[in-house]
Amino acid sequence: MKKPVRTFALLAATSLAAFAAGPARKFTIGMSQCNLGEPWRVQMNADIRKAAAAHPELNVIFKDAQNDTLKQRSQIEEFINSGADLLIVSPKEAAPLTPPVAAAFKKGIPVIVLDRKVLGGDFTQFIGADNRKIGRSAGEWMVRRLLDLPAVKARGRARVVELKGLMTSTPGQDRNAGFREALQGKPVDVIFQADMKWLEPEARREMESALAVYKDIDLVYAHNDPGAHGAYLAAKAAGREKSLLFVG
Question: 163 and 222 in contact (C-beta within 8 Å)?
């Protein structure tokens, strides 16, 4: 399931436009992106840059935390200390990024939290998806699809691998919780699960481990598309990609 990148960008653009509607002067916006290893995040930055370009009074400074929580905390603190007028933060993890976001907010700097949540309510606006619903919808579709497979009908139960997004991030937690809700009472077993941290190389390594241990796997549920692609590449290298379903 692809993230609604354009929707996020439009909402962010609306927030930026409202922010810029005040007295005529230059505003500095600090954008802290948790990583650029996920293609959709590269697109997110591009869309924010394009939206901001329509407002010459805005100067957006982009920083890439490179999946390093300490680096992202430092980046946010740097934005605060340099006098940024507004922050946009897409946090790697919820708990560790809560204090610096709250510090900015309490200092009077508006903070837009994008995609992944922080804890509490010390921020100005959250823009993101209902990830629990995403996980539940994915699970419901998978159950229907799995129960039609000849191998599952013969065996009586489906065998699934779950490759999780970063489980210290709220989308990973919610996509897992919604998925498990959909499986309750259904003849589906999660035989292997691992935290692939939203990254394709990690997903590929974890899937290689699953394939080495389990001969019969019906479906792979990855919490994002790069994870599903990494699992596919591992299965293809093992000559088993045609016998599996892949859901991202």
Answer: yes
| pLDDT, tens only, 153-207 | 999 999 999 999 999 999 999 999 999 999 999 999 999 999 999 999 999 999 9
What is the Cβ-side half-sphere exposure of residue 105, based on CA atoms within 13 angstroms? 19
Among candidate residues 208, 213, 200, the one with its CA nearest the CA of residue 237: 208
AA identity, residue 76: I
- pLDDT-flagged residues of the chain (< 70): 1-23
CA distance 187 to 185: 7
Residue 15's nearest CA partner among 47, 63, 42, 62 is 47
pLDDT of 10 reads 56
